Amino acid sequence: MAKRLATAYVKTQIRLTEAEMMEFVQLFKKHGIDIHMRVYDNGSHVVVLEEGKDQEVRLSFEMEQEHYVFEGSCCFHEPALANAMRQAISQFRGSAIVHRQYVNFTMEYWYERGTVVRIVERRAGGAERVVYSYNNHLLELEAVFRRTDVEANIERLREEINRLLDIRRTLDRSDAADVDKRLADLSRQLFVLEA
Predict the structure, then answer these.
(1) How confident is the model at residue 174 (pLDDT cuts 50, 70, 90)?
(2) d(CA 39, CA 159)
(3) Which of 33, 80, 143, 170 has a beta carbon 3.0–4.6 Å from 28's, enabling a disulfide?
(4) What's the rounded Cα separation, in Å, for the pair 170 and 89?
(5) Which pLDDT score, from 0 to 100, does residue 1 have?
(6) pTM for this model (two decimals)
(7) How would you class 94 by CB atoms within 10 Å of its CB: exposed for 0-12, middle for 13-18, buried for 19 or more?
(8) Domain extent for 174
(9) Of 89, 105, 134, at which residue does a domain stop?
């Protein structure tokens, strides 16, 4: 198995309440990570994660409408730190683009509201391969449901059927065959759209 060189959180956003901020800190402590917090007069917090002897990662949380919001990037070389951050993104429904960097390739993970929605493998030569892509079928169905063009087509078909029925009433039986064929075709289309 390839050895991970680093994990870079490129575009990261986490939004925490005060209680969740304490849970966030405890999550890192549970992984044995030295963590301390600096609180500023404006309510902002800087979470400092110790990585190795002389390295630290700072996460600046700005106070916005009673929530602590981190928007930015960070890079971890220690697997325990990267794993804790992954759990934090998931638990607190954060969004992020994460690059797990290996010698000859990078795995790119896209998180939205704590869920992995896309994984892409990027090779050193520029080749890329989509490993996983999440499709939210419920959202797709809602979008189809909200579309009004189907209703407009149904209304247009009904008007055309009514117009043809009016024309058919004025025709002889021998002349009505073409209109009947067109009415049958429009009825099938209407049935499909209403289904």
Answers:
(1) confident
(2) 68
(3) 33
(4) 70
(5) 63
(6) 0.67
(7) buried
(8) 142-194
(9) 134
